[in-house]
Amino acid sequence: xxxxxxxxxxxxxxxxxxxxxxxxxxxxxxxxxxxxxxxxxxxxxxxxxxxxxxxxxxxxxxxxxxxxxxxxxxxxxxxxxxxxxxxxxxxxxxxxxxxxxxxxxxxxxxxxxxxxxxxxxxxxxxxxxxxxxxxxxxxxxxxxxxxxxxxxxxxxxxxxxxxxxxxxxxxxxxxxxxxxxxxxxxxxxxxxxxxxxxxxxxxxxxxxxxxxxxxxxxxxxxxxxxxxxxxxxxxxxxxxxxxxxxxxxxxxxxxxxxxxxxxxxxxxxxxxxxxxxxxxxxxxxxxxxxxxxxxxxxxxxxxxxxxxxxxxxxxxxxxxxxxxxxxxxxxxxxxxxxxxxxxxxxxxxxxxxxxxxxxxxxxxxxxxxxxxxxxx
Length: 376
Description:
single chain; 376 residues; alpha+beta; Adenine-n6-DNA-methyltransferase TaqI, Chain A, domain 2; five-stranded mixed beta sheet; four-stranded antiparallel beta sheet; 21 strands; globular
């Protein structure tokens, strides 16, 4: 049984000294279709590096693309550090759980397992994000580079204690990942049922109508950052969850989608919430219900209603006129009753995730600093 106790003997060591290799990546020429077409080699971009475990990538390259570029195969269980990228990307870290290649903006650390535990190094660097950001150099766009990363000093205990610490933190992350996967599965099960009942099996007696016959969308509410307060009510922007507040504007359960900036994402919110003015929320479920409306909006290609130029913008009146079939109210309620248990479980899982994340985030700096150590 592992116990947490105070203090630990540690030593300073540069990252480069605990690696067997430090690799950067490369980007095959985009105009060469054969470098990407039917490619099976995972190819990672920095936007996918976000304090996570990489199990798949958005893009793939071919063997020809790998051979004719500076991209290199990175073995699994390496540490990926984003060296540059937009916004707060540079300094973020990830563990690749599959062999992959990366673009040139990633620094890939292959950890010497006789000197350090790769998961411990990952957690240490996750906890050192702000310090890594401060090391960025350059004028127009400050970035990290391999020299800065290799010389970055970390404070490590014995190899066994590293493994003990990593075991505690990874067990929490594994539980969090499992809950996320459960939620994804539950949502997919409800979506399959929705498509069977309302897309694939449209009945002859269903009338043709428009989205506005089923629901009414309304613009969200202003809430400047200085006026946001920590609270129990979630805030939703066009891109999704955006913090919490001590007040709410809409009774849950509710549904939102992006109004400006980010279009196409749809969110179901179980509890009372505050939709920001960058979003639209369902004010009136005329014929539908919250869960039915959520999946109905997900079947619509909302991005095609973009009415903006510089900034993507959704005109709610346009989407209200989108043609849809109008199922019977009885059928909709039957669907809602069938899947409501899924969403109650999802909401319960979300609360568990928050609890586990808070525990992990509390332990992380204490374990990494040596203030608290793990002994068997």
